[in-house]
Automatic annotation (TrEMBL):
This is Epoxyqueuosine reductase. Cob(II)alamin binds at residues 53, 131, 155, 166, 213, 238-239. Belongs to the QueG family. Its main location: cytoplasm. The keyword Cytoplasm applies. [4Fe-4S] cluster 2 binds at residues 195, 211, 238, 241. GO terms for biological process: tRNA queuosine(34) biosynthetic process. It holds the Pfam family Fer4_16. Residues 173-205 form the 4Fe-4S ferredoxin-type domain. Pathway: tRNA modification; tRNA-queuosine biosynthesis.
Length: 345
């Protein structure tokens, strides 16, 4: 049964599939320590869910096994990431978010896999997850042999690097479990050294409060002024720790058309992004993970990018157009950005 399921997973486009039990007792102390240090920032749900994240059978009673899968997402024809990052007039968007919302794609594929299992082997109990519930994804994928946790806390695989999503099926099927793989980071610290905000405070330990992905996506309030210059032109997420990782030399482009670049998001202009109306934002970002942060947070992020861009009439004009915006949060970030260009509010 396990071999058949793995074959179906490959047919559906998954890069890897591993099976593990529900014992995450080795990972739980690290989770609790991370929460105690308040590294989760404003993500209150991380603390609220507590040990449900590290005890799968508490989240879904009756769970015996967890099927962990990976799904490559790097589009083949996306603009070179380094070149976009080095052009301060461009808006850098994390490469996972340039196409369709991965939650939907992953959940759909997992459901297709479960439907095949049902058709072939009969009804069974299951629940699928796509970064949508208290699931300790990396720990489960590590136990299942899908890869190992890198020092940046993301999962790494020798054949895929780290440009992939993780998904899970919690099930009562007593499938044979797969052995974990060994770690291959060695003495490399490239991801730690390159982090713009030094959010990787120690190997395998991330302070989300300093992480650009957290600041531009999860954090809803004012971005700390001392971190804004370090964000550069990254307006949605950050890939630096992945871009520098030697293992991503072996990564492969996705074959999933849903992850193809939409609306030129691989190399959009900051000024253009800032001029979008709310209707334009909603139209362009429909079906995208970016849609979830909302229009005002998008403008907040782009304002920071414009504050870090070279001074030009176009940049100053774009910022001035929202200098008196009715939203206090946006207004504050615009005024900061203008001050960066020597213009008092």
């Amino acid at each position: 049964m396990a071999a058949t399921i793995k074959g179906w997973a490959r047919e559906l486009g998954f890069g890897n599939l591993g099976i593990t039990d529900t014992d995450l007792s080795a990972a739980e102390p690290g989770l609790l320590s991370w929460l105690d240090k308040h590294y989760h920032g404003d993500m209150d749900y991380m603390a609220k869910h507590g040990t449900k994240r590290s005890r799968p059978a508490e989240l879904v009673p009756g769970t015996l096994r967890v099927i962990s899968v990976s799904l490559d997402y790097m589009p083949e024809h996306a603009e070179n990431s380094w070149q976009v990052l080095e052009n301060p007039d461009k808006a850098y968007i994390a490469r996972y978010a340039m196409g369709r919302d991965y939650h939907k794609v992953m959940r759909q594929k997992l459901q297709q896999l479960c439907s095949r299992i049902t058709e072939h082997f009969g009804n069974f109990e299951y629940r699928v997850f796509a970064d949508s519930a208290p699931v300790l994804e990396v720990a489960l994928a590590t136990k299942a042999g899908v890869g190992w946790r890198g020092k940046h806390t993301l999962l790494l695989n020798r054949q895929q690097g780290s440009w992939f999503f993780l998904g899970e099926i919690y099930t009562n099927l007593p499938l044979p479990i797969d052995p974990p793989t060994s770690s291959h980071c060695g003495s490399c610290s490239a991801c730690i050294d390159i982090c713009p905000t030094q959010a990787i405070v120690a190997p395998y330990e991330l302070d989300a409060r300093r992480c650009i992905s957290y600041l531009t996506i999860e954090h809803k309030g004012s971005i700390p002024p001392e971190l804004r210059p370090l964000i550069g032109n990254r307006v949605y997420g950050c890939d630096d720790c992945q871009l520098i990782c030697p293992w991503n030399k072996f990564s492969v482009s996705t074959e999933e058309s849903d992850f193809s670049v939409r609306n030129g998001l691989d190399s959009a202009d900051l000024v253009t992004c800032f001029t979008w109306t709310e209707a334009e934002f909603q139209q362009r970002m429909a079906g995208s993970a970016i849609y979830r942060i909302g229009y005002l947070q998008w403008l907040r992020n782009v304002a920071v990018g414009l504050g870090n861009a070279p001074t030009s009439p176009a940049v100053v004009s774009a910022l001035r157009s929202r200098q008196q915006d009715e939203n206090e949060l946006l207004r504050e970030h615009v005024q900061w950005a203008l001050a960066r260009h020597g213009i008092a509010s």
